[in-house]
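Sample intake — Acetyltransferase
Collected from: Variovorax paradoxus
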Amino acid sequence: MHITISTPTDEQVRTGALGRRLRLYNHSFVGEYPEQQYIRLDARDGNGRLLGGLRGFVFLYWLNVEVLFVEEDARGAGLGSRLLAEAERQAVALGAKNAKLDTFEWQAREFYARHGYEVYARIDDYAPGYWLAYMKKTLAR
């Protein structure tokens, strides 16, 4: 059999054919589930300055936190906690039962632990000399 591997065109990617095929395959194991749904939050001051935000998505009933960032001069006032709580609230409304994220050791592991996240895996030397923690939490329903 002659098989070629190539980069898809933008149009081929936009059609979503590959994702639909995987989704149909997954359905045979776990049943139908909602499509991936995004959670995007920004926090701005009265002048419109971006102070922080969160980017994530809900897939297979899990909130996946991709980015949570708060500017250094806005830290310590609860903004990160508010962003995380709102993302979790929206995720539960979308059907999420759990949440997961990853964080480097110099980032916010203690912050997430205070919010109920626990480390379930770790990769040492992910960035030279630093480990990456994978954390998860059961969301309140």
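Post-analysis note: The mean pLDDT is 95.
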